[in-house]
């Protein structure tokens, strides 16, 4: 193990050297929004309800350390990858295999650039690795150690739950494990312990999420008069209004456009409340998001699905609904009025099983296979990261906000002046990025070879449970990204969407590798050989 620890230190040092000249890039949109939420400690700014609280609170905590945020992201990522490597070794994975998985994870090309932006995926990727590692420790632990890792697993899942809305995938992954273990128990009575550990993981997670939900719910009521524990875009009132708006069955539907100008005009006739929002959507607010949709989604004179949420938010604000509670009431009225008006005029409202997804599936479904294929190809990145990212031109107040909140090293963010360390490390980064996809392919082929040779011994059920959990997390997120790409807006150029899934791939392969005692036979003494059956 000492060789393993030394190798981990060397790999970590190489990664830190490669990114030493990089820093957080100031952006006037999403990441800037997270920073002003962190300044308000989330619950002291009404606009915070557009997001979940974990990442803004993490930014507030990191700011007070004085450590550059870029280094915090990287250090936490390296630690979580190390934790995962140690966990799979405990399950019997060969040390060399775990070390290779660690190296491939740490040098995932997506991580080199994505960590330059203060986005929630920078934290979520570490949470995914930590929760998966704790689950592996749960499978391999007993006594007090089991209960400790069980609690850590529940806490990490809860942090993921309140980082992004799609984190319900955590519980879906646990459900799939329990189902798998239930089938095992039916055929193999010896696996009762494994089923107990899976059920314990689900129950502990449910309790932790319930406690966190109660806390967030109470704080939202106290500070926002908002009776929900989820962000505004997941609230019942908004989902009802949004689904009613995009479901209005009228005219020809356009790809990437769930709520067309024609549907908006009809909605303004059916709903007096929406009629107050309509001038903003046809005016300056709508023009802003139509320009973005044209540039990024190729949509002409319409608002694409990826930006409709924000357009509706600004339109609601312009009606005088300046607080989240007031906007919640606006959405509640719009949803009720649209449903009543459509029913009175015999206008159909189409629905889709998943909330907020464009119900006109005949428009986007033909694009879904290509989107899914693209997402799977991007699961193992093959592109080269840029040699260096430099600070673009943004308003001074935003730059100052990033300098203060991200503890930026301002010498690294001067426009047009890349840092010398980044330039020197560029050759190393390009080489590692170019070798990444071939390295993963070789790793997979070698693993499949060992599985084929030792196929009779390869089915270790606790390893399969860990593999099932990590695969479910990765693959369901791939499907969600493909769904976005097909129905809402192109995601092909947004690497951070794929980062949480991509870093799990090396450990998926490592967990499939036969355990070391399956093919390393222990030495047998002469006395033992004498009593062994021939």
Automatic annotation (TrEMBL):
Coiled coil: none annotated. The chain crosses the membrane at residues 91-112, 118-139, 146-162, 168-187, 199-219, 435-454, 466-484, 496-513. Signal peptide: none annotated. The keyword Transmembrane helix applies. The keyword Membrane applies. It comes from the Bacteria. Keywords: Membrane, Transmembrane, Transmembrane helix. This is Glycosyltransferase RgtA/B/C/D-like domain-containing protein. It comes from Acetobacter oeni.
